[in-house]
Here is the input.
Amino acid sequence: MKYLCYSFLMLSIFLGISCKPSTEKSSWNGETPESQGISSKAILDFINAAERERPNDLHSFVLMRHGKEVAKGWWHPYDQESRHTLYSLSKSFTSTAIGIAQSEGLLSINDPVIKFFPEETPANPSDNLKAMRIRDLLKMNSGHNQEPSAETTRNTESWVKGFLSAEVQHKPGTHFVYNSMATFMLSAIIQKVTKQTLAEYLTPRIFQPLGIENPVWEKNPQGINFGGWGLNIRTEDIAKFGQLYLQKGKWEGKQLVPEAWVEEATSFQTSNGSNPESDWEQGYGYQFWMCRHGLYRGDGAFGQYCIVFPKQEAVLAITSGTKDMGAIMNLVWKYLLPAFNDEPLKADDDAFKALQEKTTALKLNPVKGEKSAAIAEKVSGINYTLEENDWGLKTIAFNLTSDKPSMTFTSDSTYTLPIGFGEYKEGSYVFPQRGKHSVATSAGWTTGDTLQLMMYMDETPHGYMAKISFKEEKITMERELNANFGPTKQTPLAGKAKQ
Here is the structure.
């Protein structure tokens, strides 16, 4: 199952205390777009359309053509040096590890899955389970009617044992079901045959050669990288990975991934639908999606993309936080895809300058509202005791009258979150198991007694809108996520002034 514990993830948004180091967003160090056959105006049109039609959705992009960076940008508070959660875009890296391991003679994708886990295989495995091969995991053809649930996988002493104990209703290879736990099993197989985690195995083979520094790949309680999700790297790292595949697995003269694997993994391997207008029904490879227009991609929830344009010799990496991943791709198809030309274009200094100015000044829209309200002085300094809630917060207090506004939460400890009016103020928090995360907050008074906040956990796709209403001695906080696997609206928090 691909979903993480979002209540814990989102609680961390509120726990910011110190600013993360700022990074200067440099202009690209590649070529002008025109020198690589694409106009600066087309890229600028794409950015403007994204901001107009999908406001605050895009977090970053890197566009490469002929191996050169031709444009890139980050919407503040997202920045060039911070890693971004990839979600299921992680799967394409896991597939790569399987391809390399096969070339090293460590496994064959025709091997039965249970071959690697004799101790964790049920005593009397079904014929379908016995027939399940690595190839079936790669193609999302494991034979499950639906992805094995958390009850049969994560709530066991072994996720592998839980997966193998789930009923396999169909003959493997015959039924497509998107299945992140199948990808987890690929990670478990890599660890079994190499005695290394997936991340450790890929480090000298992919990460170091490509200059992907300090990748973070989350693990399960048994110490196995999630595989199907959990990788965190920079946007430029995503682009380099796409470029590696565009170059058929070769990097700086060395074949890092077998060319035959690249061809096989990024080709149609199984049907996943028949709608010619859907980029999720063009076929599936080995943890890669086929796209319309003869393209392929790796992608992750809420808009993490590595799109490869083979005929155009281009790669586009995007990170975002969107409810509509198809809408982002449609903008790419509309504005960028038609703009690739076979020959260099005539220099357009004015358009190139406008594009540079735009990409070095990108920022998410702050909350619209007043910077102050008459009630601010009255509510500042008051401790509000909160009713029992899913974040485990006990009290909340506000400082809204100083030149450094903030709010302070208490649970088992006390945390202060800086607030920006008309801008985003950045902080960070180090919390158990998940480490240090950055958070950026903007606020505005929308009415005389309502303060609206927007909080981005700006190394993830996620942002939280919180509307805080002050009524006499009571406080209510409505909460809504920009994007989520489940409902975006959360149960409001409620409290009253501490007596």
Q: What stands out?
A: The first helix runs from residue 6 to 11.
